[in-house]
Amino acid sequence: MDSLAPGESVGLGTSAEQLATDIGLTESEVTWRKEFVGFTEEDAERLAAMRSVVDDNEEAFQDAFLEPIYAHDRTQEVLDRSPRGEEELRTIVTGYLRMLTGGQYDREYFTHRAQIGRLHDRLDMPLHYFGGMFANLHVVILDALEELTKEAAVEAAEKGDIEGVEAAIEDGFANTAAAIRGTNLDMQVINDTYLHSYSSDLRDEV
Q: In the predicted model, what is the mean pLDDT of the chain?
């Protein structure tokens, strides 16, 4: 499975397909997880419709993800272990978001998410650092959706369309829910890769 950016990588130590198999990422498991968090075809369509948000805010998304990492010594140390430069990291951030808004959320998609988790684990990035990075990303995604919601609501209000205002607000909440469900499914798989690695290390020690 191709990387999101060209150039040298720390590598997976295995294939992406084998990693997905090892963590139990079957088609039925993917289906169950989506059902559990309520991720529907409508959510998939809403995420795909957010591609323009990603394209219009590409640099802001990159900055929101990377600047807090560069601003703290602990996370900077992790980046220092990576063979990737800043431009490659920016490409990876954008690539991740474009996949998130790509409309395909099957086993192949989540196998790539497993690959992301494994690469960060091999950089010895603590899982709570990764969780914090996702929180920062959530904020900028939600900020962008908030702006879209306000624009639609104001446009309807200026026309005296009360139902249109209500519809804009409801649409904004639905988009937010889709984004949260989608990124949560991603994080579940990333968590799995870390747990698999911890378990493997423990077995080796025993």
A: 87
d(CA 30, CA 33): 5
Gap between the terminal Cα atoms of the chain: 32
Segment 2-45, tens digit of pLDDT = 554 444 444 555 688 888 899 999 999 999 999 999 999 999 99
Q: At which residue do the structure tokens 């690695």 appear?
A: 197
Closest by CA to 97, choosing from 188, 4, 11, is 4
In tens, the pLDDT along 41-58 reads 999 999 999 999 999 889
Burial class (CB in 10 A: 0-12, 13-18, 19+), 135: exposed
Asked if 27 and 106 touch (Cβ cutoff 8 Å), the reply is yes
Pairwise CA distance, residues 4 & 86, whole Å: 14
Q: Which residue has the tokens 């805010």?
A: 57
